[in-house]
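Lab manual, section 2.4: Encoding a predicted structure.

Procedure: take the sequence of the chain (280 residues), apply the prediction step described in section 2.3, and record the output as C-alpha cells. A sample record is shown.
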Amino acid sequence: MGRFDAAGLDEHTVGQTDNVSQTDNVSQTDNVSQTDNVSQTDRTREHLIATYRKKAKHYDITSRLYPAPGYPQRTQRLRAVQALGLRPGDTAIDMACGTGLNFPLLQKAVGPGGRIVGVDLTDAMLARAQDRIKANSWSNVSLVQADAAGFDFPAEVDAILSTYALTQVPECAEVIAHGTAALAAGGRWAVLDLKVPGRTPGWLAQLGTATVRPFAAIDEWMMRRPWEAIRAAMQEELADFVWTELFFGTAFLAAGSSQSGHGRAPHQPQASCPAQPKPV
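Recorded output:
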C-alpha cells in the first residue's frame, strides 16, 4: 500500500486559471489568444458547475437514462474498478466522483482498511456523496471540492479512477500527467468515458454523444476530441497501457501502471488486452 497521508486534504481548493502577465516580447495576438482560451476554460467550468448543481438532487436516477435507457453503465464502472487491480488496504482517488456512484465498488475492492478520496468540482454533488457516505457508515472516505485541473494529488496513492467525466475537462491531459506523478510504484490509472464512434451509423454516433449534450457544448466537445488527448497522455505517461472500446465504440476504458521501477510489484488487473482499439 502506498504511503498516503490524508492530512491537509481539506486545504485543497478549486483550482482557478489565472491570466499570466506577458513579457514584452509576446505579441498582442498571442495575448488575445491566451485570454480567449482562459475565458473559454472558465466558461466551461462555470457551465459544468451550474448544470450539475441543477441535476445533483436526482442525479442517481437520471444518470441511468444516459446515453439511453439500459446503457450498461454499472457494468462498465465495475470493469473500470477491476482494471485498477486494487488490493485490501489500498488508497484510491475517485476523480470527478459526483454523488459517489463508484464508492460501493471501490469499497468492496479496498476494504475497511483502505482509503477512498472523492474529488469533485460541484458542492451539490459532493453533498449527495456525503449523504451516501453517511447512509453506509463509511469511515474511510474523504471528500474534496476541487477542479480536476487544479487538484493537488497526494503522494503515493495506489490508484486513480475517473468515470464519465474527464472528457469534459479541457486540461484532461494535464490531469493524467499530474495524477501519474502522484502514483505509488506500480499504481494504476483508469479512465472510463464516452467518445464518438468511428465509422459507425449516425444513430450510434448520437448515442455516444447523448450523455455529453446536457453538460457541455457538443460541437466544442466533438471538435476537441478529448478521448484522443486522454489516450495520448496515458500512452506517454503509463506502462502496460490498455485501450478498449466499449459498446460499439460509444465508450472507452483506458488503463495503465506507473512506470516507476522500484517499490512494490505492479498491480495486476483482472484482465489485459493489447493497446489497440478493440470493440467489445
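Check your result against the sample. Residues 174 and 184 are 18 Å apart (CA to CA).
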